[in-house]
Amino acid sequence: MSDGELTSGRILDAQLHLLDRQVLDVDGVPVTAVDDLELTDVPFGVDLDGTPGPVILSIVSGAVLGTRIFGGRAPESRWNRIPWRAVRRVGTAIELTEKGEGLEATWPERWVRDRIIARIPGGRHAP
Amino acid sequence: MKRLFAVALGVLTAIGGFVDIGDLVTNAVVGSRFGMSLAWVVVVGVVGICLFANMSGRVAAVSGRATFEIIRERLGPRAGLANLGAGFFINLMTMAAEIGGIALAVQLITGIGPMLWMPLAAFAVWIVVWRAKFSQLENATGLLGLSLIVFAVAVVMLGPDWGELARQAVQPTVPAGEQPATYWYYAVALFGAAMTPYEVFFFSSGAVEEGWGPADLGTARLNVLVGFPLGGLLSLAIAASAAIVLLPQAIAVTSLSQVVLPVVTAGGTVAFCFLVVGMLAAFFGAALETTLSSGYTIAQYFGWSWGKFRRPSAAARFHLTMIIGLVLALGILATGVDPIQVTEYSVVFSAVALPLTYVPILIVANDADYMGDDVNGRAANFLGLVYLAIILVAALAAIPLMIVTGAGA
Amino acid sequence: MIRALAAAALVLALAGCTSLRSTVVDALDQAVSATSTATLAVHLTGAGRLLDPAADTTLADALTELEDAAATLVDAGPAAPGESAARRAALAAIRAATDAVLATRDDLSAGRDLAGDEADLRAARDALEALAAASGDPS
């Protein structure tokens, strides 16, 4: 989150308020859960005094969940990112400013929909 | 008037939806072997499910978050995944039991073995999940399930010695010929049957599905607090019917056909027809609920789009999960395992897994971040802690009792 | 950890230590339950209360139970001296009950009168109960 938000007085604990929380798109449709967060790098091997704190770049989902549970590191090509600037509000869920349809994080959903569910008769009709 | 109708409908469906194959079989087994001496467990279980469903419904209505989203958030991904695995597995067993139960009930009217009916039943469940509206399926199965009241009618028609039944219930003793360990094993099973976790997944997800807000809580609470105790009375009637007819003849229930006999003894063919309709509706309703729960739990853990109120293509992985769940449940049944035995194990494992869902809900119900001013009050927390103790004892005792008694043999 | 394993082993050992005596009684109890069920079903069918498909299902379930009871005895391993007679008697009674249920099922599907079958079933049941009582009080 940006410095501006920090100074505005709301302190969020990444572990408590962000990780594993539900992400909803602009219409309230579930997109993913926050499997991990991508932060800006902290310079390595220099005195940290005076360097700016790390900032959240994106919400990550997909294979990183497995590596968070079982250890290891997923290749970056398999990270599904949602850029942090798309976040509108952090409440009991994290709300986005965009539709989920266009996000990288929803490709498995689109794949299952287009390859399987939409092909079964009635799959596209409201119940 | 319309509101009154809605409340009445809610209460009636809560009664009809309370009994599933777990309650039916466990109560009949217990009645035929222990008389009414385990009736107190049904009372403890009904109070517990009222408390638990009420709490999870309140959390869902106020925060808009269903049970498994909360479980992952509070327990983290690792413990959440273990929890999901246990919850999904037990739910799958219950699904298999309900689908098997439908097949056994159809066998009672057709005389044709259950294997033929299992795939048909699973397909019917899928079609309804795929095409029907949430409220329609809940109301239809709940109302038809009310024909199980025939058990209560049968008990009255049998003209039992009420004093003796009451004495067994009020001064419980382990009957001669049964071990104390077996008595306690069935106490745990009965508790698990009354408090089946899938009802909680289903209840909290249903609250989100139907878009409950805090304003709807009153109605929901009424449905639960009136409907479930009446459902519990129905459970007691099942046990009583078995205690009156089967216990004196030394018949220990091991199959669905034996559950039917007391009702037929009392009311003949007409009662039998009501009973079969009620069983089919109750099992089918529970099969729908467990199938939906299999989708709910997994979709909520991973944060996928879910819900019956969406088109299947707008909740694709949710629907795919349910299809896979149904296929797995059919796979369990295809091994030729007796659905009644699956039922008996499923209620005991439900008791084992109960703390896994109960504890996170209890924690979140006290979390002002989620609940604002609607956090648990003192009374709710006191009861909540009492039940936490009961649930933990039942969960820890279940497996040792199962081993010592040879699963209640 | 070791203590937990030891406790588990003890529990398993206790569970495994069921004597043949109680195996015989358990099998007889199971057979009594199945035969009683069949008797009740036939009685209700004779009174015009139970429909044929339900009666047939009940008899089929009773047969499964009887098979299971017999299998328990057959699989119990070699009997201690003095117990083999009790086991043979129990097996014979269970087989007689099985025959009675089988005959009933045939008569039911052929639409024959079931009064005789009901009497046979009652006799088989009484024999099983007498044996169970003689084999000692149910544990």
CATH class of chain C: Mainly Alpha
Helix-strand string of chain B: HHHHHHHHHHHHHHHH
Low-confidence spans of chain B: none
Number of continuous helical runs of chain C: 5
Specify the structural class of chain B: mainly alpha
CATH topology of chain C: Four Helix Bundle (Hemerythrin (Met), subunit A)
What profile does the largest beta sheet of chain C have? none
Tell me what portion of residues of chain B adopts beta-strand conformation.
under 5%
* C-alpha Rg of chain C (nearest Å): 18 Å
- Distance between the amino and carboxyl termini of chain B: 52 Å
What's the total number of strands of chain C? 0
Which chain pair has the greatest contact?
A-B, 35 and 36 residues
Q: What's the helix count of chain B?
A: 16
Instruction: Please estimate the helix content of chain C.
Output: over 70%
The helix fraction of chain B, in percent, is: over 70%
Please, could you describe this protein's structure?
The complex is a heterotrimer of chains A (127), B (409) and C (139). With 127 residues, chain A is an alpha+beta fold. Chain A has helices at 3-7, 14-18, 64-70, 107-115, and strands at residues 22-24, 30-33, 36-39, 56-62, 79-83, 87-90, 94-96. Chain B is mainly α and 409 residues long. Chain B has helices at residues 2-18, 21-34, 39-63, 67-110, 117-131, 134-145, 150-157, 162-170, 180-194, 197-209, 217-245, 256-302, 316-334, 339-364, 368-371, 378-405. In chain B, helix 3 (39-63) packs parallel to helix 9 (180-194) and helix 7 packs antiparallel against helix 12. Chain C is elongated and about 50 Å long. Chain C has helices spanning 2-16, 20-46, 52-74, 84-110, 115-134. The mean pLDDT of chain C is 86. The chains are: A alpha+beta (127), B mainly alpha (409), C mainly alpha (139). The A-B interface holds A 17, 19-23, 29-35, 61, 65, 68-69, 92-93, 100, 108-110, 112-113, 116-118, 120, 122-127 and B 63-65, 69, 72-73, 76-78, 80-81, 130-134, 299, 301-306, 308-314, 316-317, 319-320, 369-370.
